[in-house]
Amino acid sequence: MVGPRIDSILRSPNWHNFASPSWFPVFRSNGEAPRWVLRVQHRRGSLAGIVAGVRRRNLAISFGVLVLLSVSMSLVVLASYRAQKYARLQMDFVAAVSHELRTPLAVISSAAENIADGVVPEKQLTKYGLAIRNQTSRLVDLVEDILRFAAARDGSNRYRHRIFDVSELVDTAIENTRALLDRDGFTLHKEIEPKLPKVRGDISALGQCLENLIVNAVKYSGRSRWIGIRAQIGRDHAGYLEVQITVADRGPGIPAGEVKQIFEPFYRTQAARDGQIRGTGLGLTLARTIVEEMGGHLTVVTKLEQGSAFTVHLPPVLNPPSEVESTPVSELSHKA
Ligand code: ADP
């Protein structure tokens, strides 16, 4: 404030003329004509500066709101895309399961009908019985896969952890799939590194996982009739020791665009669907879930026209306790 010295603060007698409360003090100069210049300035600078600042702040807020809106829009679009994709996969799954159910059910029903009608000669009865048994076990396998998948999903799987030899795991998985390998004339190349450390986990569940990989190698090998199984000690990305069990084939391989998706539930490659190869698209999801629950992970390396190699990576037990729990092979009596 610039002006003459202020001598007094009085109450104006004509105060009501200003339509203001009478108690408001006014400054009066000492006899001279008042020449006041009132400059008002915000603590933060000039009015123009403040307006520009407010504008900038409003702009930043609008921009933030816009970014937030676009992020939420993208999330909504992504979620609906995922929901659509999942619904489509489930529809494919229902179609695949129905297809898988139809064939064995048709065989069982026509065999049973023929036997009931008495049109089957006695010497053919055994053959019919075998067909019914095979188709029934195919149905049981399918239902078991679906139940296992459901259990893995809701986390109700009960694992019995043990410390065991990798060779025991590999040999049992091979034994359980031997009939399939022999039936299709496969050559199996097995290589187990000597003095491999033991691993810890549910040997039955891990066996099921290995068998899934072997069955896949058989199903998707095309004309090749070769499977390699190798167990070795290696190092993970961080340089830690790990046990690696690889199931390799020399089949047509998996297109790069589909490699990630084969681990998703219900996903089947275009080639598998076109080739009408039996399957539900659950095997690898199950295998991966099991391996991860044992503290490991499952990877694949694949090259078109050259084959695929699926590897189970497991943490080794480097200092097993003296009273090592061993698992009887009888525990490994699950399906091939
Ligand atoms: P399923 O075999 O029942 O279809 P999986 O989950 O085991 O289901 O496999 C998912 C898909 O991955 C298969 O449908 C197939 O397309 C592909 N796949 C799996 N293993 C192999 C393999 N060894 N070679 C080529 N493709 C494979």
In brief:
This protein is an alpha+beta fold. Helices cover 45% and strands 17% of the residues. It contains 6 helices and 10 strands; from the N terminus they run ββααβαββαββααβββ.
Class from secondary-structure proportions: alpha+beta
Q: Topology as H/E string?
A: EEHHEHEEHEEHHEEE
Q: Quickly give the CATH architecture of the largest domain.
A: 2-Layer Sandwich
Helix content, binned percent:
40-55%
Strand fraction: 15-25%
Low-confidence stretches are 1-12, 323-336
Total separate domains? 2
Query: Which ligands appear in the coordinates?
Result: adenosine-5'-diphosphate
**Mean pLDDT, all residues:** 85
As a whole number of angstroms, the C-alpha radius of gyration is 38 Å
Alpha-carbon distance between the termini?
Answer: 96 Å
In DSSP terms, counting alpha (H) and pi (I) runs of 4 or more, how many helices? 6
Sheet bearing the most strands, described?
Answer: 5 strands, mixed
Read across the widest sheet, the strand sequence of neighbours is: 4-6-7-9-8
Shape, principal axes of CA atoms: elongated
By DSSP, the count of extended strands is 10
CATH superfamily of the largest domain: Histidine kinase-like ATPase, C-terminal domain
- Under the CATH scheme, which class of the largest domain? Alpha Beta
CATH topology of the largest domain: Heat Shock Protein 90
